[in-house]
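Per-record layout

source: Streptomyces humicola
name: FtsK/SpoIIIE domain-containing protein
length: 610
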Amino acid sequence: MNRTTRRSTRRLRKQLTSRDAPPFMLVVNDRHSGELLEAVGRLLFRYRSELAPIALGLWTGLAGIILHATHPGAWPWILLGSLVASGAVLKGWLLRRLDRVEERVYAAATTSAAGGWLASATALGVSRLPLPWLLLTGTAAAGVPWWTHRRRRARVTVDRTIRAWPEVAESIGLMGSQIVSATVDAWGWRARVSLRRGQTVADAVSRVPAIESGLGTRRGAVRVTPDETRADRFALRVLARDPHAEPVVWTGPSAVSICDPIELGVYEDASPVRVSFLRRHALIGGIAGSGKSGVLNVILANLAACPDVVLWGIDLKGGMELRPWAACLDRLATTAQEAADLLRDGVGVLDGRAGALSHRGLRVWEPSTLEPALVIVVDEYAELAEEAQDALGYADSIARRGRAVAVTLLAATQRPTQQAMGKKAVRSQMDVRLCLRVRERRDVDLVLGQGMLAAGWAAHALDAPGKFLLSAPEANTPQHARAYLITDAEVSATAGRYGPTRTPLDALSQSATQPPEDPGEDADVIDAELVEAADEVTAEAGPETALLQALNDAPLDGRSVADLMRVTGMGRTWVYGRLQEYAAAGRVVQVSRGRWRSRRERGTEATMTG
Ligand SMILES: Nc1ncnc2c1ncn2[C@@H]1O[C@H](COP(=O)(O)OP(=O)(O)OP(=O)(O)O)[C@@H](O)[C@H]1O
């Protein structure tokens, strides 16, 4: 109480107690009593949900008094009506929005209990013992589940928030915005908010901490995502609890082909995070300990289960991260030189396939078990830039030209700066970007691309390992996700399970990784006549006809690739390209490693023509 108030209180007291003071009169101020009633009314309305069980008890009691006085014989009908209503609620014909069994059972039990009491009170009178006590204890018993029910409480919170939104919006700088619709879900509630003309979703994104403060939520509870259909709307999600508070257990590979999307984890609404890695390069970024290796493990565990993929790995941390997958990796490079060789061979495969595709008149390599995709996994790409500069040129080439021929990169790094990625275009070629927690806000744009932070991709606010944001053609909103957690034991079990049955690289791609060599080295001793005849054919009809003839004339144990190179005068990749094409068409068979002949059926010689 301040000094002025104290002084006026003293004066008032003096006036009231002095002898010449006017007689004290209690004046009922109508205006104030009206305000009081209004305030009580407002309070009752505000807490109407909490007061519902008490109101129901009071109405039932009142109905009992009236019915006993007017229709005491109606009790059988009341009983029957309440039983029918309970059955209808249980069946879901009444109160349809109660979509859970527990909720329907509660509503049915309350209806039949209230009906039973009302029937008894109608017949016997409300005051007949133990009816008053039953009404009191019944109201309390029905009230407990009601008051503690999470969904009801959440619904009430949403209701109040919608009403308070104009005030909140004004104080957080989104004046004029309105909540258009709101729903309660398992973890909190979500709403669609319309913005005042001229405001954008970027304004809402930049005010997320203010929205959290305005709504009185915990930090990190609010998500703002653009509405794809309207620039003047956004989706607001408030998470009362963090759905990703606990690690998400991995349940096994979700893909059996590189053409299938891979399930990486779950979004906050419990829907799975699925993304395709077919003909796409991928970048995984995040600080140390954010869970990059964990995400790589999920991807590798899925790709290991796909027989139409060959996996190569580069791990310049001495193989620490990728060695557990060694059984499933066709190649693993752990030194700078090995990494450069591996990427150079990757470019070789790419070129070999590109040549074969152009010969077949096709544009893309369709992965199959005979002609698998090649995925090159690079753990900590920055090490590559530091230690194996030569390798960066090859990586760049693969990033730019590898998609069509299904030779792709999957790179993980802490900060994909220009320096860490090499001064090449690798980062800009990454179609799938997965951002775990980053240290600085600007790192969001480094991993996900320019402008993503401003668009609401707040990866700097992710607060646990394995939490991530995914940007891919099929994931274009900043939805928070958590990757499955694969334990070390699961990694070794998965590698052990799929390792022995991994598909080898196709012969054409293999040949493209080998240095050009003299075909004479492993050539068979073939008669001079054949070579001479082949030379003639080659000169007249071209190398393909010579190849077909040599395959037709091949002995039962086939002809070596070196011979085929000699008779056609063409390189290894060209020969393998044709052989693979004929093999896919069922026209030639690989008799043993590196030996081929045309297919012969039922002992007859099936000759091939071009
Ligand atoms: N999806 C996940 N769910 C829960 N915990 C996880 C998840 N992924 C990783 N972790 C935890 O975080 C720790 C660090 O993960 P991880 O080694 O994958 O991080 P990293 O980013 O690869 O780190 P570094 O850059 O140092 O290699 C792990 O030991 C694991 O306990």
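summary: The two ends are 106 Å apart (CA to CA). Confidence is low (pLDDT under 50) at residues 1-5, 15-27, 519-523, 602-610.
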